[in-house]
Amino acid sequence: MDPIERLIREKLMRDAQAKTRRHFIKDCAAGLGGLALGSIFLGCDPLRQKIEKQKITFSERDLNPLATLPPPYTPKVRSVIYLHMAGSPSQLEMFDYKPVLHTLNNQECPESLLQGKKFAFIKGTPRLLGPQAKFSQEGESGNWVSNYLPHFKKVIDEVAFLKAVHTDQFNHGPAQLFMHTGSPRLGRPSIGAWATYGLGSENQNLPGFVVLTSGGNTPDAGKSVWGSGFLPSVYQGVQCRSEGDPVLYIEDPKGLSRDLKKSTIEAINKINKEEYTKYADPEILARINQYEMAYRMQIAVPEVMNIENEPENIKEMYGVEPGKESFANNCLLARKLVEDGVRFVQLFDWGWDSHGTDHSTAVDLGLRNKCREIDRPITALLLDLKQRGLLDETLVVWGGEFGRTPMQENRGNKEMGFKGRDHHGDAFTMWMAGGGVKKGACYGKTDDIGFLGIEGQVSVHDVHATILHLLGFNHEEFTFEFQGRNFRLTDVEGVVIKDILA
Amino acid sequence: MDILKQFLGRLHPLLVHLPIGFIILGLLLLWYDRKKQTFKTIIALIFFWAGICSLVTCVTGYLQYRGEGYAFDTVKWHLWLGIVTTLFCFLMYFRIAEKQFLQLLKQFPIALFSVLMLLLISFTGHLGGDITHGKGYLIEPFPNSVKSFFGYEIFVEKPIALTEESWETSQFYEDVVHPVLNNKCVSCHNPKKSKGGLKLHTLEDILSGGENGEVIAPNNAEESPLYGRLILPMDDEDHMPPKEKTQLTKEEIAIIKTWISHGNPSETSIGQLGLPKDLFLSFFPQKENYFYPDTTVVAAHTDSIRAIKEFGIHVQQISNSSNLLSVSCINKPSFANDDFEIFNPIKQHIVVLDLGGTQINDGIFEKLTSLPHLTTLKLDNTSITGNGISRLSQLEHLKLINLTHSNFQSSFIPVLSGFKKLEKVFLYKTKASQLPEKNPNQDSLILDFGDYALPKIAQDSIIY
């Protein structure tokens, strides 16, 4: 395209994007009179004439916002599967083995540890709670894993642990937002939206960013954790249901033929394209594309979301329950989606908030059930990706929004009937596996009771920087201009965690 | 009126060529006519017109200077010399036309006038060019030696080269701090150009500070302007380096801070100071582990790429800085052997080729041999049996082959060990099975037959 023409178009785009309601109201006073005058002089507005006169040529991205773009640097992975345990799993019962905490079980927590700390529910002086699980070192790496995850040891040499991740949020909503958008407040794009915006998606029949939830509930932070923030809305996550129709109303109503549907959409898009030439609003392009993709998705999505046709041994390996909403189903779907070129698959599993308020949230009871629900599927997912040659080009990330305290929760300063742990953001475990990740690595260390990181502490921003790095971005250069400044997923922080890179 | 002024101003770069042309023509004719002296009247006329044109040019030039917001300092020499040139043109006219009222002029030879005229027009023109194109535009293509001969500043970047073996014995100031200052600060703080009276090219000069006093407070980085100015907000007037110059990286700033807080040592090695390795990691040669061939190819023509895309095939550079291509038939399941022709224009560029789920068969191997840089090859979910795969041994960069869910036969496994760079072959759900004898290339070649299983265990069904 002619560079001048491109500059003109970029300017028009930017102008269109910069128009806010405030501008509109401001313009109204003088503008309405001008409008009347404008129609008298018929198109005196120089900009408008320009749009009509010059033939706007569309780039691939204009016509299809999901068209792929090359990453700035050679990427290590093509896709990401992010497994989020909503509610935050207890690292002290799963990966972070603390024998000293065991010997200190039921002792009062020293005052020095509590000073200046905020907890969601802990009041007064809580008592320490020893690890409830048994731990062993597994695999060639000799990394620790608990008996809550008996299958996971099979793949322990594939993953790289981050043992001292910290966040500055201690409530679910903000912490989940922080973990997925880099900010505890609403309005920022999620990691998946950034990735889809930056890279597009190869399969033109499927969305680039798919979200699957399980555990009977959606994340506390709501849909913003897979939102597009200030990025064009086409880059937000598409939530698919694992029960019933994967996408609501994906079937055409009875009596509506595919051809009629097609010509309807073509007619709508034609009108929309005319609108675009008038107003140059990129959201119109997004809309055009959404219509077209929805049409193609009607065939492709039910196909990829159908796990019934998978061979028995695969279904057994994951432990799927077709027709139900389950984390196992979602893991199998995640593999299928990545196999079909989806850029970012986000899994949320709800029910990890082990406060010990009842049976289901006790770290020695309900947590074991939750662990059982993910142990087989996650192990199967890693093995299945591996045997299909997909693990080398996919990044799998596992974690919660924060960790849990080494102290037993004493809600209302009372002893509780079940053993539980409160929210804890100062040190928790996450892991990554897949392309570009150092197999069997273990980075970071917490103190003897798992309260604070003492070595290799990494922040949420560091995790984001690392994910972007593996996708081929320098997180400091990957920006989007919004409201007069450049925004990054990592805000003004973030260091790539080189120690877990292969 | 303002619009007219601005418009006329913008004509200046065009109009300047008129007086230049006239003057040069005049000078040439003077030379040609030096003996016969027959064109005198014409030459005089030429210089008269040169003067008129110069006058117009001066006016438009002034309008441009006012209208485009140039600083007077930027244009002053060009402006004054322009006026002098104009006046000189008329002087030439009077001299050549031998006007009576300027008898005085006759005392000087016309050759002297000519030389002066030539010098004037050259310098004025050059200064004008410097304003439009930027200083140093003309000299830019020359090598550094030529530039320094003409008195232009040359800047030599000093690389920081620490290695795994040498970093501890490297001199902290000489090998790290000095290159950092040299690369980011010295272009404005050197003996020739010492902004704020500060020179940073030697340790002595750093210690003697600038016109605002010393830049290092001993052992106290926070109080030292040399460090403090680096971390001021970018918009702060005192921030260094100035906004528009290349900034120090986080790692470089950390180096300056550490150096000052360790008492700005001059001849101490990193090891002697006991500094942590982390501080220097970014100055180690970056191990660029090239997965894809380290070759540069000329970018494929956009038209050929467009044609391939329109055919329904996904094509994309592996990264923005590479011309190598990743190609996928993910949206083109009908792709068959005969369609391979479409890749002809990008054969040198393809490093990743995904033909998974297409209609290809064993005939494809022959065609694949024409992709010299192929690194990753996906033939999964196809009907290939492997007959002819041996031909791929000539592909020097081939590292990964995905054959899952194909009809690949066991009998073709042995030939794979003859592939030079092959690292992994995925053979899940093929007709091939684990060979009884150990693969001779076992160490470097991973054959992944997959079919992993997770046997049922008691814990699977215990509900707590």
From TrEMBL, chain A:
Pfam families: DUF1501
Domain of life: Bacteria
Alphabetical list of SUPFAM superfamilies matching this protein: Alkaline phosphatase-like
UniProt-listed Gene3D superfamilies: Alkaline Phosphatase, subunit A
PANTHER family found in the cross-reference section: BLL7424 PROTEIN, DUF1501 DOMAIN-CONTAINING PROTEIN
Protein name (database record): DUF1501 domain-containing protein
Source organism (scientific name): Flagellimonas algicola
From TrEMBL, chain B:
DUF2231 domain sequence ranges: 11-132
Origin superkingdom: Bacteria
Pfam families according to UniProt: DUF2231, PSCyt1
Classification via Gene3D superfamilies: Ribonuclease Inhibitor
Keyword Translocase tagged: no
This protein's record includes keyword Protein biosynthesis: no
Domain Cytochrome C Planctomycete-type: 185-244
InterPro entries in alphabetical order: Cyt_c_Planctomycete-type, DUF2231_TM, LRR_dom_sf
Keywords recorded for this protein, A-Z: Membrane, Transmembrane, Transmembrane helix
Transmembrane segments annotated in the record for this chain: 14-32, 44-65, 77-96, 108-128
Name the record gives this protein: Cytochrome c
